[in-house]
Amino acid sequence: MKKLLGLTAVALAMVLVTGVPHAAEKMKVGFIYVGPIGDHGWSYQHDQGRLAIEKELGDQVETVFVEKVSEGPDAERVIERLARQGAGLIFTTSFGFMNPTLKVAKRFPKVKFEHATGFKRAPNVATYNARFYEGRYIIGQAAAKISKSGVAGYIASFPIPEVVMGINAFILGAQTVNPGFKLKVIWVNSWFDPGKEADAAKVLIGQGVDVITQHTDSTAPLQIASEKGVHAFGQATDMIKFAPKAQVTSIVNNWAPYYVARTKAVLDGIWKSEDTWGGLSAGTVQMAPYTNVAADIAKAAKETEAKIRSGALHPFTGPLQKQDGTEFLAAGKVIDDGTLAGMNFYVKGVDGKLPQ
Amino acid sequence: MKIILEKRIEHSRVMALLSPLLAIAITVVIGGIIFASLGLDPAEALYVYFVEPVTTLWSIEELIVKAAPLVLIGAGLAICYSANVWNIGAEGQLTIGALFGSAIPVYFTTWQSPLTLVVMLVLGGFGGALFAAIPAALKNRFGANEILTSLMLVYVAQLLLDWLVRGPWRDPQGYNFPQSVPFEGWQQLPLLGEGRVHIGAIFAVMAVIVLAIMMGRSLRGFEIRVVGNSPRAGAFAGFHQKRVVWFTFMLSGALAGLAGICEVAGPSGELQPSISPGYGFTAIIVAFLGRLNPIGVLFAGFLLAISYLGGEAAQVELGISDKTAQVFQGMLLFFILACDTMILYRIKIASGRSASAKA
To answer: Taking a C-beta distance cutoff of 8 angstroms, is the pair B166, A158 a contact?
Structure first.
């Protein structure tokens, strides 16, 4: 009896010293989203990436997420909570989380952080984004082929470089088909506002635009396009079920390959802070199936897609002029990522003034 | 058998104390049932939700950070509502206060003096009071409904902030992203301790003490309560309703403005298109939860802060949606108001026979 007691005591002591024994300690991977995961857009796609990690590495990691985190002081608390609860890797998936991420990263040097779309890094903070402009070049080309009026409508969110480079890529793609192609841009000053986006779509169509595209996240513009019988392009997710007769294709954000690769890197101990900008070739940007257009337009789009993927074509290849006609890229040159990341001017062919 | 509500002759003092506790108890029970129906262990879920936020120093500090603006604004609103003056626009006054205070870091980037922060805080309070004076003036001069005007002005304030951070006040080094220049160290609130608790928490406690004394012991407090309960009686006593409208609006506006500049000069450290997750609106709940009493507001602010932090903890640890947190807040407020019925009414159970005999 005494012996048994002694053994129990030893066993207890061991448990206390080593902690509760786990079959294998799983690494926690944390996510914070700016929207609800049901937004069918930006946050939804990030959550798809999280689910891909669960599927591929579920035996080694567990994932946790917090949705609808407002950008500001609340974000810092949520990120710190994830770090305190033992997350080894944390993805902060909106631009406004940049400074909170850096602040928490300073206090938790052993935790790795991944911030989407930001430009500030630290030894344990990496940044990543996607080359959505590659997709916009393809849809620009397709739009110019579809349009009879020669004018496309563009529903834009905010005049930040990300959006400006998308507008430029779109018109450059369109100009390869029709050098005189016109583009009308409406700024709705929101990433997600179905009401404003729908109004913008109505105004554009009323002004004679017969194909519209959007850099906002709701499905409203596609639904208006369906009603009015014009073509449109989806954003962030494949929105075909909201506009089965109007969507030509959609630029899909596919974070899964990157998220799985970075989680593996942390598990293998080879994670480094870097800036990753993946496009079609990395699989971060995908094009939804081409529908509702003639076979030759779909074929041409697929060819352009293949050329960009292989590196044979870069949407921003000189000679390129700014809106006022001054050259900013010499013939044969390919734009560098720094210029792209800070792009704050329209290229030649875009109508209207860029809000400054 | 029939249950009837019978009006009490006097307010029940016992029920006034019991009602919030009863409401919390019912919320916990119903919450437990909701958790159980989601397939979670109710005891564990309730622990994560309500107890865990007060178990570590870090989470207590974060609780204070979250509660400070709610208490600061809620205390002012409690005075306002006691006077039967309905300032619904604290969110807008918070925003304007933050803008006034931020003018210093934006326009006088290099002015470094011990006075810098003081001027920012004073400007914050001044901006909030000035913005609150608009609905007060409209009410006093034209009899415009202050609920509507103060609420509508929230959108004006938010759009003004939005325009400034995307336009004239945008950080030139910020790649066109909508944010102001980051505030320098001397333009930020001093911190208390290791975490993020800043001196805004002290302002909140000071506001509660000062307002509690004012309401309990001063003529001004008496005036507010009399005018609030019965403007006619107040007029006979020589109190001016208009003066009370001015005073309560500008007081609550100043406190909201102070909370606003404390948020941007504290945890944020810069202006962004959104600077508050709706503190000005949540503070309305806080004011009522605290029974329009400044001391009560202090407790109510912490309770609401716990429900936010608990909601986040529940998402991380239990994997439930953020909607659950909102359901909890909604239930709590609903039960508080429902239980308040007991202060004015008593439940009487009439026997079935007598009821049917009457019928």
So the answer is: yes
Is residue A133's pLDDT more than 60? yes
CB contact under 8 A, A99 and B270: yes
Between chains, do B312 and A64 touch, taking CB under 8 Å as contact?
Answer: no
Residue A64 to residue B316, Cβ atoms within 8 A = yes
Contact A96 B272 (CB under 8 A): yes
Q: Cα distance from A78 to chain B (closest Cα, Å)?
A: 7
Task: Examine the pLDDT at B351 and tell me if it is beyond 80.
Answer: no
CB atoms under 10 Å from CB of A143, counted, come to: 32
**Residues A45-66: tens digit of each pLDDT:** 999 999 999 999 999 999 999 9
Q: Any CB–CB contact under 8 A between A269 and chain B?
A: no
Q: Which residues pair with A153 in a beta bridge?
A: A184, A212
Rounded to the nearest angstrom, the minimum Cα separation between A2 and chain B is 36
Q: Is ipTM strictly over 0.85?
A: no
Nearest to B316 among A36, A66, A342 (CB): A66
Owner of token pair 């593996």: A264
Shortest alpha-carbon distance between residue B154 and chain A (Å): 18
Which CATH superfamily hosts domain A132-250+287-341?
Response regulator (3.40.50.2300)
Q: Across the A/B interface, how many CB contacts are shorter than 8 Å?
A: 73
Per residue in A266-282, pLDDT (tens digit) is 999 999 999 999 999 99
A158 part of contact set with chain B, CB < 8 Å: yes
Q: Where are the alpha helices (DSSP H) in B143-240?
A: 146-166, 200-217, 219-229, 231-236
Q: Which residues of A touch B178 (CB under 8 A)?
A: 158, 160
DSSP sequence for B303-356: HHHHHHHHHHHHHHHH---THHHHHHHHHHHHHHHHHHHHHHEEEEEE-HHHHH
Q: Would you state the pLDDT for residue B213?
A: 95
- Residue B137, number of CB atoms within 10 A of its CB: 15
pLDDT tens string B287-315: 988 889 999 999 999 988 988 888 888 88
pTM for this entry:
0.82
Q: By C-alpha distance, which of A230, A248, A229, A251 is closest to A240? A: A248
- Residues A250 and B116: their CA atoms lie apart, in Å, by 51
User: Would you say A274 and A239 are in contact if contact means Cβ atoms under 8 Å apart?
Assistant: no
Could you tell me which residues are beta bridge partners of residue B288? none
Least CA distance to B305: which residue of chain A? Answer: A74
B58-102 pLDDT tens trace: 889 999 999 999 999 999 999 999 999 999 999 999 999 999 999
Amino acid B331: pLDDT: 86
Which of A77, A104, A164, A345 should we substitute to test contact with B (largest number of B Cβ atoms within 10 Å)? A77
What is the C-alpha separation between A283 and B105, in angstroms, rounded?
43
Q: Which CATH architecture group holds B68-316?
A: Orthogonal Bundle (1.10)
For chain A, what are the domain ranges?
24-130, 132-250+287-341
Is residue A18 predicted with pLDDT exceeding 70?
A: no
Which residues of B fall within a CB distance of 8 Å from A33?
none
Residue pointed to by tokens 């049932």:
B33
CA angle (A81 as vertex; A80, A87 as ends), nearest 5: 90
**What pLDDT sits at residue A11?**
47
Q: What is the CATH number of domain A24-130?
A: 3.40.50.2300
Q: Structural domain boundaries of chain B?
A: 1-40+320-359, 68-316
